[in-house]
């Protein structure tokens, strides 16, 4: 029972990370119908931005919550800028070509960031300074680190923040309109170019937050860290129903829980396959994902 | 072409390949080919097989698959397994050894057949459920299958697990690589100009309209998928048994699948000659940038990625588009109508 609860906590914190990244995939897919392969690498850049900020603030010698907040917001701002830049320089010029072209462009951007990261940051992993002193709380035999708790709480806060932006603000309404039908939204006077750029900024900021948060629990960061994590986060987005924000959260948590659950058993070497196996099973039963809506096909 | 002409052409090709293969292995008089260049030429041949076979499903049928490396892995591992564990027995059964040309050839053919059949079976298993899905979802499911296959192979110690299938016996040579590349090109080209190919083109154009015209879309899609997987399996069998080039699950992930996609997109998706040009260019390009690498370490792959993005922005249809390269383009009189016939 205790191990189950323990794995539940670990799974929730891993799932929260996947969910934060999955949100970026799902939002971009919503407005552009583009699988933004470079999104996992934005998450990597977020972790590195946090790393350099934390070192500049010398957080390794005097850790503080305030410093951690500054680092997280800073990394989010930097990545929001990078997201806008990627959209403007790479995706906008190919937006009117076929979707395959956009997909290959996204793959190209992803490779560019990965290899570029290896040149700039070096391929050897770096160790993220400990921004928050590690504490372990014991609740009924279950060990909860404050890092895991922080990940879950911050991720939840951000998801609620996102939900507020999308559901309750004017710009959120414009985002939903653009995602429903881009050309009609433009006819209604919405500046869709701005909305798309904003969506990229928002998604990239969330990915950056995920990058800094994950570094709290697993302080090893390297330029290829976004490859597998990004792929799984994307699978989470599809699992929940791509284009659906609650779906991305649900999918992220599900995959996080399943992975940690499997890690505790004798089949831990199959860990990387479980996300895909579940995805395929779900897609065969519900082709639009768990919470996705599949409309009739237009002819 | 009449049957005799076809037979004659085949004989000429086989003789030519055997001749070049001899030069590759033993040199020509004093001339010995640089092993580094020979290796690149061989890799080009394998990549041509991969690219042209993927072109059948991604280009002709317009179904976007990101799982080609998975089928390459299944076929490659099955083929190599046969050679490693039964190769000696098969060779001695036909009264030869694995070191002798005849024995190695028999084993090669059998192992490639095994690879093709296994990969085709995997293609069927993946294709039947997943081809019901469309567009991006198909892409994701094929990607998922590729990754699952990779993780499964990682957990089979008999084929080397994470260290790769290093027990492989190097029986692949220039002859088999290019014989298979030509066979692949012939198969895909013949499909393209047949009723089957036209059905695939119709599906690519508009699946609903194709179905309304009475085309059994699922059947044709699955068939194309299975053939494409079988050819990828052959490429895997050739690759895994090339000298010092063992199959490794780490190199057969979705990045490898994407590499093949980039090849056909670069050449012009749907064009067979385009796929050949793409495969050749993308095998040579990283090698050519290698000298550059000594001055600026790591920058070569950055440039490669940047070129890919720039190419998509400025020439999204690829080098050839959907057209096929033909020698008539070189004749000035035909300039205006160049390639208008295409597939």
Short description:
By secondary structure, chain A is mainly alpha-helical. Chain A has helices at residues 2-32, 39-56, 65-91, 99-121, 146-168, 170-180, 182-187, 192-217, 225-240, 245-263, 271-285, and strands at 126-127, 136-139, 142-145, 220-221. The longest helix of chain A is centred in the N-terminal third of the chain and has 31 residues, at 2-32.
Tag the structure with descriptive keywords:
A: 299 residues, two-stranded antiparallel sheet, B: 343 residues, mainly alpha, disordered C terminus
Describe it for me?
The complex is a heterodimer of chains A (299) and B (343). Chain A has 299 residues and is mainly alpha-helical. Chain A has helices spanning 2-32, 39-56, 65-91, 99-121, 146-168, 170-180, 182-187, 192-217, 225-240, 245-263, 271-285; strands spanning 126-127, 136-139, 142-145, 220-221. Chain A has one domain. The model of chain A has no long low-confidence stretch (mean pLDDT 89). Chain B is mostly helical and 343 residues long. Chain B has 2 domains: 1-33; 36-257, no CATH class. Helix content of chain B is 70%, strand content 0%. Chain B has 13 helices and no strands. Chain A binds chain B through residues 33, 35, 90, 93-94, 97-101, 103-105, 107-109, 111-112, 114-116, 118-119, 123, 231, 234-235, 238, 242, 269-270, 272-273, 276-277, 279-280, 283-284, 287, 297, 299, and chain B through 64, 129-130, 132-133, 135-137, 139-141, 143-145, 147-148, 151-152, 154-155, 208, 254, 258, 261-262, 265, 269, 297-299, 301-302, 304-306, 308-309, 312-313, 316.
């Amino acid at each position: 029972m205790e191990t189950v609860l323990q794995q539940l906590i670990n799974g929730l914190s891993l799932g929260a990370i996947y969910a934060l990244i999955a949100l970026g995939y799902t939002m971009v897919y919503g407005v552009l119908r583009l699988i933004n392969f470079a999104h996992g690498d934005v998450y990597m850049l977020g972790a590195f931005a946090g790393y350099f900020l934390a070192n500049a603030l010398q957080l390794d010698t005097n850790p503080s919550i305030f410093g951690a907040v500054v680092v997280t917001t800073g990394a989010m701002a930097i990545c929001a800028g990078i997201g806008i830049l990627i959209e403007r320089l790479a995706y906008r010029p190919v937006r009117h070509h076929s979707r395959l072209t956009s997909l290959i462009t996204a793959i190209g951007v992803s490779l560019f960031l990965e290899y570029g990261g290896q040149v700039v940051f070096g391929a050897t992993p770096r160790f993220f300074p400990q921004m928050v002193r590690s504490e372990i709380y014991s609740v009924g035999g279950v060990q909860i680190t404050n890092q895991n708790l922080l990940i879950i709480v911050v991720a939840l806060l951000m998801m609620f923040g996102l939900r507020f932006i999308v559901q309750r603000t004017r710009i959120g309404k414009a985002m939903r309109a653009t995602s429903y039908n881009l050309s009609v939204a433009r006819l209604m006077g919405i500046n869709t170019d701005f909305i798309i750029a904003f969506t990229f900024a928002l998604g990239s900021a969330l990915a950056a937050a995920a990058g800094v948060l994950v570094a709290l629990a697993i302080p090893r960061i390297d330029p290829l860290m976004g490859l597998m994590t990004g792929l799984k986060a994307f699978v989470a987005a599809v699992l929940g129903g791509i284009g659906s924000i609650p779906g991305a959260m649900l999918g992220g948590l599900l995959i996080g829980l399943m992975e940690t659950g499997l890690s505790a058993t004798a089949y831990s070497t199959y860990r990387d396959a479980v996300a895909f196996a579940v995805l395929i099973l779900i897609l065969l039963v519900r082709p639009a994902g768990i919470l996705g809506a599949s409309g009739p096909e237009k002819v | 072409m009449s049957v005799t002409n076809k037979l004659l052409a085949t004989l000429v090709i086989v003789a030519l390949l055997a001749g070049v293969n001899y030069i590759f292995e033993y040199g020509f008089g004093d001339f010995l080919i640089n092993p580094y260049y020979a290796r690149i030429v061989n890799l080009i041949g394998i990549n041509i097989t991969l690219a042209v076979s993927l072109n059948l499903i991604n280009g002709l049928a317009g179904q976007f698959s990101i799982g080609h490396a998975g089928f390459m892995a299944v076929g490659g591992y099955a083929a190599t397994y046969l050679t490693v564990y039964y190769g000696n027995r098969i060779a001695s059964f036909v009264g030869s050894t694995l070191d002798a040309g005849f024995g190695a050839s028999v084993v090669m053919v059998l192992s490639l057949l095994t690879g093709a059949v296994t990969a085709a079976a995997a293609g069927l298993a993946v294709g039947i459920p997943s081809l019901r899905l469309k567009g991006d979802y198909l892409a994701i499911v094929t990607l998922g299958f590729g990754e699952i296959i990779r993780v499964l192979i990682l957990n089979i110690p008999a084929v080397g697990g994470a260290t790769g299938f290093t027990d492989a016996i190097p029986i692949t040579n220039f002859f088999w690589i290019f014989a298979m590349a030509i066979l692949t090109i012939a198969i895909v080209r013949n499909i393209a100009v047949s009723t089957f190919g036209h059905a695939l083109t119709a599906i690519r154009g508009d699946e609903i309209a194709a179905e309304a015209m009475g085309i059994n879309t699922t059947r044709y899609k699955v068939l194309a998928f299975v053939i494409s997987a079988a050819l990828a399996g052959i490429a895997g069998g050739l690759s895994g048994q090339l000298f010092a080039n063992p199959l490794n699950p780490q190199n057969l992930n979705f990045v490898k699948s994407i590499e093949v996609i980039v090849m056909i997109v670069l050449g012009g998706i749907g064009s067979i000659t385009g796929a050949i040009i793409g495969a050749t260019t993308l095998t040579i390009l990283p090698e050519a940038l290698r000298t550059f690498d000594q001055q600026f370490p790591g920058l070569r792959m950055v440039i490669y990625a940047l070129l890919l993005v720039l190419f998509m922005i400025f020439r999204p249809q690829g080098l050839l588009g959907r057209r096929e390269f033909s020698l008539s383009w070189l004749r000035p009189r035909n300039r205006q109508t160049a390639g208008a016939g295409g597939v």
